[in-house]
DNA sequence: TTCGTCATGTAATGCGTTACATGATTAA
DNA sequence: TTAATCATGTAACGCATTACATGACGAA
């Protein structure tokens, strides 16, 4: 039951209509809680019925009218409550990795999988680059350190960073795996991938990449 | 509708009972398709009814009897079919990152979140280490390169690698974020985290870590 | 004698996905 | 005139989660 909480936190510090939330989910909340427009639209009346958000009609000319929602006190309490409850482990759902699991069973399937991995790598890299842009525009002319020290709501920055990291990681894995599968299909050595790098764990050695330098 | 496919691929090359599948999901399939025991048990009769798997009773003494399932020809075709269909983007669901999104709204909540991040980092690292062990036992005395060249079914290795990478990445993110939040709460600089590292993108510079060296 | 493992479920409820539906405005 | 954006849904179905349930064996 966390779509509820995902919607509530999206309303922290800003009122928004359903359509705006749908758009906001695309670039921020989707990084940790992917949801379809239908789900979001369906959730809003439920939250309002429970008194966690309050909606009001906004009449527009040249545009359809819309219903704009704000967090209530009860909604804020629900968020704090949620934060006080133990988190469940993260879960991934990935069709493509289900396919990777079959690798070695059928050569034609393997070729298909490798080409889908290439495509996935490109998509992930594109999304990662988008996140890098968003992060840099959040920073303005400040360094990340300055931003994290001075900005009051750093949450959106930190979660966008999560999305960036996930996409980069996914792109990296997809490229590596595509090469491994294809090299086998050719019966050749795996080119251009330093599999024998002496580092055993990325976790201690590698800092998070910098957003400020480069594009 | 991919739990179906996750179960089918788990039966590639080996017959298994429900209980065994539940256990297998824990350490391998869960890395890309997390599912509860109840879901798996419920899925098996459905797959059998569709003719994608065949079950037979195995009578045991000293143990409850069990029903063991094998892929049918139709099941294999269903897998190939699935592979030929375009994959959906990966999705993450992560409670804790929903909480991170709120950071900056309430200091007490922030402290709570930072401490949950510490815990998460530890759990992820433990799981990553477990995967490293599993990977090394798959390799035996071969290098990864040798393994990928010579073993016929490399799928389970590649997906375990995915799990390892995800857990390491998640641990790294959790540590970094916990520090960022806590440093702000103290009003201090962020210690020990090289935020200003000149590398802009992890994806091109960093190879996948090696499994063979270290423990 | 208590816990963990083996072995398998049911039932209720709620969440999520897919397909379908509408209708105006504005930019290419 | 075609597509994209704004704005919001309904309906059907199937998937997922939570709680509950059973019962024997073996190890500590």
Can you give a write-up of this model?
The structure is a homodimer of 215-residue chains. The first copy, chain A, has 215 residues and is mostly helical. The first copy, chain A, has 2 domains: 82 residues, Winged helix-like DNA-binding domain superfamily/Winged helix DNA-binding domain (Arc Repressor Mutant, subunit A); 98 residues. Chain A contains 9 helices and 4 strands, in the order αβααββαβααααα. A 3-stranded antiparallel β-sheet of chain A has the order 1-3-2. In chain A, β2 and β3 form a beta hairpin. In chain A, α2 packs across α3 and α6 packs antiparallel against α8. The longest helix of chain A is centred in the middle third of the chain and has 33 residues. Chain A is globular. Chain A starts with a helix and ends in a 10-residue tail after the last helix. About 7% of the residues of chain A have low confidence. Chain A binds a DNA duplex (28 and 28 nucleotides) through α2 and α3.
Fold topology:
Two copies of one chain form a homodimer.
Chain A lengths: L2 H8 L5 E2 H10 L9 H13 L3 E6 L7 E6 L1 H12 L6 E3 L1 H6 L6 H33 L4 H7 L4 H32 L15 H4 L10
Chain A binds a DNA duplex (28 and 28 nucleotides) through helix 2 and helix 3.
């Amino acid at each position: 039951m966390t779509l509820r909480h995902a919607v509530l936190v999206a309303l922290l510090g800003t009122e928004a209509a359903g359509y705006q939330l749908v758009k906001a989910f695309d670039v921020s909340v989707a990084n940790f809680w992917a949801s379809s427009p239908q789900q979001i639209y369906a959730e809003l009346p439920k939250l309002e019925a429970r008194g966690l958000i309050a909606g009001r009609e906004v009449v527009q000319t040249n545009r359809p009218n819309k219903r704009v929602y704000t967090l209530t006190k009860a909604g804020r309490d629900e968020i704090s409550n949620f934060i006080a409850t133990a988190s469940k482990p993260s879960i991934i759902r990935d069709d493509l990795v289900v396919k990777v699991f079959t690798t070695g069973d059928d050569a034609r399937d393997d070729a298909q999988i490798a080409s889908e991995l290439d495509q996935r790598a490109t998509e992930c890299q594109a999304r990662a680059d988008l996140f890098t842009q968003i992060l840099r525009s959040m920073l303005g002319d400040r360094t990340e350190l300055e931003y994290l020290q001075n900005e009051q709501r750093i949450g959106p920055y930190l979660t966008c960073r999560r999305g960036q990291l996930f996409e980069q990681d996914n792109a990296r894995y997809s490229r590596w795996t595509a090469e491994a599968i294809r090299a086998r299909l050719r019966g050749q050595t795996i080119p251009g991938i330093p599999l024998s790098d002496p580092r055993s764990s990325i976790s201690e050695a590698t800092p998070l990449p910098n957003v400020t330098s480069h594009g």
